[in-house]
Specification:
Helices cover about 75% and strands about 0% of the residues. It has helices at about 5-75, 100-110, 120-145, 155-184. Helix 1 runs antiparallel to helix 2 (about 100-110), helix 1 runs antiparallel to helix 4 (about 155-184) and helix 3 runs antiparallel to helix 4. The N and C termini lie far apart (about 75 Å).
């Protein structure tokens, strides 16, 4: 019996072409997965940036209110006959800022932060840690303020508004420290 000489070379050729096809398929699949991760990371960063802009604008507007309120209260401090918060013409309550963190939490829980630059992830972590501490302080102070009669505790509210303004400034400064790493 005569062996077909082309059969072995045909089998090798088919194995080779199938192997190349599989390797190319794996390369394309890997590229597609990496591209999807990049797109998800880009979308997540845009959401986080939008969230941080909202937070910063909210805190900045409150700083303006706290500053105006403190100026008005300071003028009343020298007049001992006026010691009621309701007599402060700009008084609108403590008005704590609403700060969001859902985009950051989603990125943290979904693992998208792992796909970001280490410096960006570190900066985000620092900013949101400062934000959490700021929110805790504001919440604590606001809860205590709700338990106090504002008209009979002028000095307490005067001090508290000063602390609100100072803590908001600290939060804004912490953000400014990492702003370039986050927004570039």
């Amino acid at each position: 019996m005569k062996k077909p000489s082309g059969t072995f070379s045909k089998i090798l050729f088919e194995i080779f072409t199938v192997s190349i096809g599989i390797i190319l398929g794996l390369i394309v699949n890997d590229w597609r997965e990496n591209r999807n991760k990049e797109l998800r990371a880009e979308k997540t960063m845009e959401s986080i940036k939008k969230e941080l802009r909202f937070n910063i604008e909210g805190v900045q507007s409150r700083v303006g209110y706290y500053h105006e309120l403190l100026s008005s209260m300071h003028r009343l401090v020298s007049d001992s006959s006026i010691r009621k918060v309701s007599q402060v013409e700009v008084w609108k309550g403590t008005r704590p800022p609403l700060l969001k963190n859902s985009a950051y939490q989603m990125a943290l829980n979904s693992g998208v932060l792992n796909d970001l630059d280490v410096e960006v992830t570190s900066a985000l972590s620092e900013v949101y840690s400062f934000q959490s501490a700021f929110q805790s302080f504001i919440s604590f102070a606001n809860t205590n303020a709700a338990l106090v009669d504002s008209d009979n505790n002028f000095d307490f509210f005067y001090s508290m508004m000063g602390l609100f303004e100072e803590s908001a400034d600290i939060y804004l400064n912490s953000f400014r420290q990492f702003e370039n790493q986050i927004f570039n």
